[in-house]
Amino acid sequence: MNIQSHINTTLPIFSTKDKLKTVIQFFQETSFSHIAIREEGRLLGLLSENDLESFEVDGVIGDYRYNLESFFVTKDTSWLDVLEIFARNEANVVPVIGEHEIILGYYELTAIIGEFIDTPFFTEPGGIIVIASGIKDYSFSEIAQIIEGNNTKLIGGFISGMRNDVVQITLKVGTTNLNEILQTFRRYNYNVLFGNNDDQFLEDLKERSDYLDKYLNV
User: How many whole angstroms separate alpha carbon 147 and alpha carbon 178?
Assistant: First the structure.
């Protein structure tokens, strides 16, 4: 998946010499969680909107260099790794850097999620299955074998939950006739949590705000 076309070059990049009141105004007028700070043309770090209360209006950004957070991606970073950076840093914007740590622009979370929703997992017809197993007992190769052994293609799958050594796995398969697949999962000691052909389930996945958090195990 090529996400480089989503690099946003219109958001500001502040310098350590800029006054803090310009950053404060930026955060007050937008819903972004972070903004990039550069020094001598290179990425120094990011200021967080959560630190607004500690800012002194009359100061300069450089006075708060020790408050800066450090995370970024490159234009070659895969979209899955970009999503992980978003989740790990509780951010809705991530700077993209090139050679010599020069800031090329930003990725916005909404744009990357939009790319994810356009993947075959959501667009291809089929059915959804949610299973659970002990974290040491499941195998994606076995899961694929179970599905393909029932003459069905596995379109996609991911770990959608993990708690107390139990892992929850959400699967998209290329059929809406799931009975035989579900029975096979049960014979292999998988606990079937969900399995039907209701298209509304996919719509709920798209709309629920905690879907991405579960997907990234946050």
Answer: 10
Separation CA 143–CA 133 (nearest Å):
11
pLDDT per residue over 9-30, tens digit each?
999 999 999 999 999 999 999 9
| The one-letter amino acid at 68 | L
188, two tokens:
């292999």
**Based on the number of CB atoms within 10 Å of its own CB, is 130 exposed (0-12), middle (13-18) or buried (19 or more)?**
middle
The model's pLDDT over 43-85, given as tens digits with 9 standing for 90+, comes to 999 999 998 888 778 889 999 898 899 999 999 998 878 988 9
Transcribe 96-119 into DSSP letters.
Answer: EE-GGG-EEEEEEHHHHHHHHHTS
User: How many Cβ atoms are within 10 Å of 156's Cβ, its own excluded?
Assistant: 14
List, as one string, the DSSP characters of 47-75: EEGGGGGG--TTSBGGGGGGG-B---EET
Torsion sign over Cα 129, 117, 157, 134 = negative
- Sole residue written with tokens 């993990």: 162
Nearest one of 150, 149, 142 to 190, comparing CA atoms: 142
**Torsion over CA of 88, 84, 47 and 112, rounded to 10 degrees?**
-140
Contact 166, 134 (CB under 8 A): yes
Give yes or no for a contact between 191 and 131, defined as CB atoms under 8 angstroms apart. yes
